Amino acid sequence: MRNRLDLRSMNKLINFYTKLNICEIINISFLCIIIPFLYTSYTLDPVLHPRFLAWSIFLLVSVIILISNRSPSLNDAIVIKKYHLLLVAFVVFSFISIIKAVNISEAIFDFLKNFCFLLSFLMFFNLFRKNDRFFEHVSVGMTVSGLITGGIVFFMIMKSLITDYDLQKTYEIFGFMGHKNQLSLALFLFIPFSVKLVFTRSIVAKVLGLVTTILLFASIIILHTRSVVIGLTSSLIFVFIISVVYLFKKKKFSLNPSILLLVVLIIGILFSVEWFTPYNFSSTFIDRFKTSFDIHSPNADIRIKIWGESLELFSGNVFLGTGGGNWKLTLPSVGITSLPSSSFSSTFFQRPHNDPIWILCENGLIGFFLFYGFIGFIFFSLLKTFLKQNEFSRRNNVLLMLFVLTGYFVASLFTFPKERIFHQVLLSFFLAYSCYITTGTGKFNGALKIAGKPVFTVLTLTLLTVSVVFAGYRVQGEHYTKRALYYRDGKQWQQVIKEINKGYSPFYTVDQTAIPLKFYSGVAKYSLKDYSHAINDFIKAKEHSPYNVHVLNNLGSTYYNTKKYSEAIQSYKELLTYYPSFSEAAANLATAYIKNGEVEKALEVLKTRKLTAKRKNELINHLKTMGITL
């Protein structure tokens, strides 16, 4: 009897995929295979630009298929609800904000990501409209992907715990996501799919869902990424509260056995980890869990300072923002005090680790309200549907969406999923499904009646083609930059120049750490004592990143070595405006003043600026040889 049930369950799963059309097959393949696992050592960031390229190609192919199969116009193939215009307006506004950007290529890249997000959302929403089982189809594939990802992560965790247990070392585990924080959030985003299978009738699917969910929860808990732990905790508390409210409102008190089994198994696997590891896992985890909410920890203190400086940046760019992708380039303009002086040689802020503040700074108040107004409307619709819905299956789907969206947006207050392609694709998927299951009547839920004009089709195809080309150049640029950094480590300066020249283009001007490519060729030319060409490269680098600490410092040093002391002084003074605690720049400024015959100004620097003891003593001894004492 059991064999018959298992065979029947397998047949149902097989039948899921035999009835899919080509568009649905492409979407499932993209979601379940390409986006979670595309990873290459070809580029500096192994996932960001390769996945963006894959995303752009996927959308371009999907649109072409839609046009060829349905209609010469996208408007006849894709339905847009009135409240979707908030997201459309946000994308349009991100294009307008390019005019404020100091680096146009980064702003265009951000706009193209937003455009791909919008198009993904609309395509997923319309797929749900045409096939109400599409979410179930995707859930099976994504659960398998989650099982593979979680299995690899859990194996790496157990190997680490057994050999040399240290929760801090889990930072080195990043799977296919390129970063531990984003790996943890990715594991969280797999959970709705596996939980969805837990509530299916198929025994095979139910077992697959249970095993994957347990693995995902256990991996998240052991990895203990603070932002995800806070997001997961918030999700569970929120879902519990609204479930209790619903039960009291409907006067129904019941507990699904699948949920109880899931909780028991998760607790069981954590006890197993405790038993098989040679250290006290539980007490260490509890200590780490407490620190997740400690706002006085060193990391929290730095981030709070960054947020404060980011809000100062926003205050000078209230309506339009600084332009997409330009936060990392313009933050120093307000004066960086949150980064210790000892870190200037190796650290530069790339993101605020807070997506709402990030959007506020780059897209201004208008962009912020458009995007989060859209998100807020969806949350409101989900809550309204959950509290009024009596059908068990639909209510569970709404609860799943509330769970994952709450966790995502709470975690986004402390990390940067906005940057990562996998997370943005899944967010567009969850938002599209949320819109589909809450579609109702009312003036905001009405479908837009837009005439089928080919201009929209042409515009979409043009932007997607530009996106593919843009992504291709950025992948190529990262590859050559990676090669340049390799040759730089070996001090092969001519080869560094060649590789940077190959990688540099209008589409890719700064690397993943916000360092302009021309900076690297400038350093190479400086090292070859070709100072005049080095100055040209540093000036070009400054155009792409006007407030960069390394660019300004090296430009000043190159002016100094060519005995252009006045220009060197200007560079160092400008640098100290943005980084007032950078002691090395202060010492360089004092030296330039001395060489320029402005000893009084050099003495003023020594008295008012904090210098390292070594550099200060060197300058004092040099002044003594000139007959000058402090």
Structure description:
This protein is elongated. It is built from 26 helices and no strands. The model is unreliable at 71-76 (pLDDT under 50). The longest helix has 36 residues, at 454-489. By secondary structure, it is an all-alpha fold. Helix 5 (85-96) packs antiparallel against helix 15 (355-388) and helix 6 (104-130) runs parallel beside helix 17.
- Helical residues, percent: over 70%
Global Rg: 28 Å
Counted by DSSP, the helix tally is 26
The arrangement of helices and strands along the chain is HHHHHHHHHHHHHHHHHHHHHHHHHH
Distance between the first and last residues' Cα: 96 Å
Q: Provide the structure class.
A: mainly alpha
Please give the largest β-sheet.
none
Which stretches of 5+ consecutive residues score pLDDT under 50?
71-76
Question: How would you state the average pLDDT, rounded?
Answer: 84
| Beta-strand residue percentage | under 5%
Shape: elongated
Number of strands: 0
Brief sketch in words of this structure:
The protein is mostly helical. The chain has helices at residues 2-18, 22-37, 48-69, 74-77, 85-96, 104-130, 134-164, 180-198, 203-223, 226-250, 257-276, 281-292, 298-315, 327-330, 355-388, 392-411, 421-437, 454-489, 493-503, 517-527, 531-544, 549-561, 565-578, 583-595, 599-608, 613-625.
